[in-house]
């Protein structure tokens, strides 16, 4: 174990996979000479050369399509988005090409590609740079999605994503890159589809993913001061989804809050609520409550931004609501 | 076939083959007959598809290539087997040109398991990557960056294949076109972008939606532009032979404005002429710009084709198209149990991939016996 930042852990995963497989390469804006807009690929150009660490023009649709084409031909591109906000320009290639290619070719053409970069809000970046993009990706069958919350998960999930034979989106967080944590040395891979209980408790389940895991843990700490023990379940992987882990937690606590960074309408939480009511209705002692971003574009002003983001207090309140406190 | 020498004016420029009979473009009589046979097959195949569509054997969208056969044969036949072709959705004949059997193409149009995409793709998504045919893409311009990516993979691996990336004239107005051409140029990719310029994007004349001539569209990326008459299969074939070898030798990306004309509507629901082009315009092209008639007349004038030979070639083309339709008819519908196949290449051992709550055979199925109707374990009310 070594203590690494989240960004160093991502870098370690890419290097781990590029060392073992020449078909893996990294392409994106500023990934090479600039060392990455968030310095995730620091040193990789020097280590692997410009054949495998490639600065793209600012052409999200174009370089994403190029990476998808390269993956169709059997390479394993890591396609970095400076942020997933910009990937909205590339969604045609994600949804219409990458997600559907295997199906419409009757299995002839797998697309082993990774789309990665930060999703969600940082601090006062305003409306166009603060979106949680999970729903856009997870909506389409054919795409997988993971959302590491810790440095260890970042290393293990990114490695698994690179090895996976399908398109996998790895959604990170600008505010997570400096987070430090213990990361296993050597080869480390976390299978997709395995949630992780970040805190145990029997009173209420806070199910969440990505950066919001940290908000959930703070909320759990606050609740503990009032002798309420929250179970914090980090899904880690949205597709495949660890349904067993969700149902196990629901069966134990009978009360659930879903916390996510994105908007509520057709959000990830909407799917989780549908799943729980469908498969664990009798386990529930209260309706599931979602905590999400306010249903507005992200405002710039500090006070409004705080109001729009799902915060610790909102999670605490939601937990009390499902506990009828 | 070595008999039937043509008139003396059809000799190789370098005079190196005194024994061989050559015709237009320096091709042998046998080669010219083969090109004619290819185009006749494409024509008869599309007419068969048109017929099958009319009686409901083919559904959805169906875009015919009738009128553009010279370009399919002239650009794809010169390629090596391991070269790559990627294209848009008017691609039935291109698929056949790259080696997919007419039966496998027709069965795909019919939505049958014998189709080259197993009935999952349909008219717009024909694939056989073992033959270097990479689709069949339905979003205008979407295949252009993919083509750049195929070429990028060739270069990454140090291969010497080239990629031929087709698009319609309307596709050059998509951002994907500019983005892909620019990247191809900066990375010097082995790709030829071929615009099948039939003058209309659906019902909109190119001249109405482009500020410049087609040839100017690649210049901003420093990619050389060429124009070829796609109705002249001989000229087109010789042109692509030469260009393909230049690109293979490292000339970098190229842009070809291949001038052609569509004899049918945009798709089956679009009349041949009407609101956006006149009957006179279509008739004049059918009369004077039919790639099959052009080659036929040249061969007959040169004494390289008799009426009997033409009829025999056409009969063969009709027979192959009939056989393709029979094969398609006989091919079964896809097995319903395969609905969930090939959504994912890798079914992860953990977690659920399909969230529709339905039963399905492979991975992602409901696990742990906790289906909606199952009794929830540990479900005591708190």
Topology diagram in text:
The complex is a heterodimer of chains A (325) and B (382).
Chain A: E1 2-5, H1 6-20, E2 24-28, H2 44-48, E3 53-55, H3 60-72, E4 76-80, H4 91-104, E5 114-118, H5 134-138, E6 144-146, H6 151-163, E7 168-172, E8 180-183, E9 196-199, E10 204-208, H7 212-224, E11 230-234, E12 237-239, H8 243-253, E13 256-259, H9 268-279, E14 289-291, H10 302-308, H11 312-322
Chain B: H1 29-54, H2 69-76, E1 84-87, H3 92-97, H4 102-110, E2 133-136, H5 143-156, E3 163-168, H6 175-186, E4 191-197, E5 200-201, E6 204-205, H7 206-209, E7 225-229, H8 233-248, E8 254-259, H9 279-288, H10 291-301, H11 307-330
Parallel strand pairs in B: 1-2, 1-3, 3-4, 4-8, 7-8
Antiparallel strand pairs in B: 5-6
Helix pairs in contact in B: 1-2, 1-10, 1-11, 2-8, 4-11, 5-6
Features:
heterodimer, A: 325 residues, alpha/beta, Rossmann fold, 2 domains, seven-stranded mixed β-sheet, five-stranded mixed β-sheet, 11 helices, 37% helix, 18% strand, globular, B: 382 residues, six-stranded parallel β-sheet, two-stranded antiparallel ribbon, disordered N terminus, disordered C terminus
What does this molecule look like?
The complex is a heterodimer of chains A (325) and B (382). The radius of gyration of chain A is 19 Å and the shape is globular. Chain A is an alpha/beta fold and 325 residues long. Helix content of chain A is 37%, strand content 18%. Chain A folds into two domains: 2-183, Thiamin diphosphate (ThDP)-binding fold, Pyr/PP domains (Rossmann fold); 196-322, 3-Layer(aba) Sandwich (Rossmann fold). A seven-stranded mixed beta sheet of chain A has the order 3-2-4-5-7-6-12, sandwiched between helices. Chain A has a five-stranded mixed beta sheet with strand order 9-11-10-13-14, sandwiched between helices. In chain A, 62% of the residues are buried. Chain A has helices at 6-20, 44-48, 60-72, 91-104, 134-138, 151-163, 212-224, 243-253, 268-279, 302-308, 312-322, and strands spanning 2-5, 24-28, 53-55, 76-80, 114-118, 144-146, 168-172, 180-183, 196-199, 204-208, 230-234, 237-239, 256-259, 289-291. Chain B is of the alpha/beta class and 382 residues long. Chain B has helices at 29-54, 69-76, 92-97, 102-110, 143-156, 175-186, 206-209, 233-248, 279-288, 291-301, 307-330; strands at 84-87, 133-136, 163-168, 191-197, 200-201, 204-205, 225-229, 254-259. Chain B folds into two domains: 24-330, 3-Layer(aba) Sandwich (Rossmann fold); 341-382, no CATH class. In chain B, helix 8 (233-248) links the parallel strand 7 and strand 8 (254-259). In chain B, the strands form two sheets. Chain B has a six-stranded parallel beta sheet, sandwiched between helices. Chain B is globular, with a radius of gyration of 24 Å.
């Amino acid at each position: 174990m070594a203590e690494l930042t989240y960004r160093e852990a991502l870098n370690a995963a890419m290097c781990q996979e590029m060392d073992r497989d020449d078909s893996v390469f990294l392409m994106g804006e500023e990934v090479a000479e600039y060392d990455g807009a968030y310095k995730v690929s620091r040193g990789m150009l020097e280590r692997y050369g410009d054949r495998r660490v490639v600065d793209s023009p600012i052409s999200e649709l174009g370089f994403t399509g190029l990476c998808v084409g390269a993956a169709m031909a059997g390479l394993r591109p890591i396609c970095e988005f400076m942020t997933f906000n910009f990937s909205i320009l590339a969604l045609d290639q994600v949804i219409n090409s990458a997600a559907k290619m295997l199906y419409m070719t009757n299995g002839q053409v797998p697309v082993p590609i990774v789309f990665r970069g930060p999703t969600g809000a940082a601090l006062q970046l305003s409306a166009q740079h603060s979106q949680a993009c999970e729903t856009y990706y997870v909506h389409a069958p054919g795409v997988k999605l993971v959302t590491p919350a810790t440095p260890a998960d970042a290393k293990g999930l990114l490695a698994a994503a690179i090895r996976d034979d399908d398109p996998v989106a790895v959604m990170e967080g600008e505010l997570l890159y400096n987070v430090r944590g213990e990361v296993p040395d050597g080869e480390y891979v976390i299978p997709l589809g395995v949630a992780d209980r970040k805190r145990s408790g029997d009173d209420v389940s806070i199910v969440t993913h990505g950066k919001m895991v940290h908000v959930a843990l703070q909320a759990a700490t606050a609740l503990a001061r009032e002798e309420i023990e929250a179970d914090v379940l980090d899904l880690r992987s949205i597709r495949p989804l660890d349904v067993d882990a969700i149902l196990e937690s629901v069966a134990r606590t009978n009360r659930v809050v879903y916390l996510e960074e994105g908007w509520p309408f057709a959000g990830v939480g909407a799917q989780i609520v549908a799943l729980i009511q469908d498969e664990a209705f009798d386990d529930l002692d209260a309706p599931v409550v979602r905590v999400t971003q306010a249903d507005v574009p992200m405002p710039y002003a500090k006070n409004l931004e705080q109001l729009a983001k799902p915060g610790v207090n909102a999670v605490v309140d939601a937990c009390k609501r499902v506990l009828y406190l | 076939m070595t008999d039937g020498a043509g008139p003396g004016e059809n000799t190789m420029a370098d005079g190196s083959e005194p024994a061989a009979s050559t015709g237009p473009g320096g091709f042998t009589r046998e080669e010219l007959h083969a090109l004619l046979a290819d185009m006749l097959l494409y024509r008869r195949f599309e007419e068969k598809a048109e017929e099958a569509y009319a009686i409901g054997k083919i559904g959805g969208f169906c875009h015919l290539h009738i009128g553009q056969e010279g370009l399919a044969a002239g650009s794809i036949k010169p390629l090596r087997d391991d070269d790559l072709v990627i294209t848009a959705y008017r691609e039935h004949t291109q698929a056949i040109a790259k080696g997919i059997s007419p039966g496998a193409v027709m069965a795909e149009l019919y939505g049958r398991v014998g189709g080259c995409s197993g009935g999952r793709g349909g008219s717009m998504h024909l694939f056989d990557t073992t033959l270097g045919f990479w689709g069949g893409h339905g979003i205008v311009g979407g295949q252009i960056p993919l083509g750049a990516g195929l070429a990028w993979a060739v270069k990454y691996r140090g291969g010497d294949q080239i990629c031929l990336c087709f698009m319609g004239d309307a596709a050059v107005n998509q951002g994907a076109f500019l983005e892909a051409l620019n990247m191809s140029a900066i990375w010097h990719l082995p790709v030829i972008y071929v615009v099948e310029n039939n003058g209309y994007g659906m019902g909109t004349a190119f001249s109405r939606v482009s500020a410049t001539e087609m040839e100017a569209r690649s210049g901003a990326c420093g990619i050389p532009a060429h124009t070829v008459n796609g109705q002249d299969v001989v000229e087109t074939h010789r042109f692509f032979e030469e260009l393909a070898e230049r690109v293979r030798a490292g000339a970098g990306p190229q842009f070809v404005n291949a001038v052609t004309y569509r004899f049918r509507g945009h798709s089956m629901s679009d009349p041949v002429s009407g609101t956006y082009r006149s009957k006179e315009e279509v008739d004049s092209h059918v009369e004077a710009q039919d790639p099959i008639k052009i080659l036929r007349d040249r061969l007959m004038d040169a004494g390289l084709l008799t009426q009997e030979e033409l009829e025999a070639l056409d009969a063969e083309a009709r027979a192959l198209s009939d056989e393709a339709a029979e094969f398609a008819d006989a091919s079964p519908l896809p097995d319903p149990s395969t609905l969930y196949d090939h959504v994912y290449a890798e079914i992860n051992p953990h977690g659920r991939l399909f969230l529709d709550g339905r039963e399905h055979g492979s991975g992602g199925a409901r696990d742990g016996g906790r289906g909606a109707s199952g009794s929830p374990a540990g479900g005591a009310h708190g």
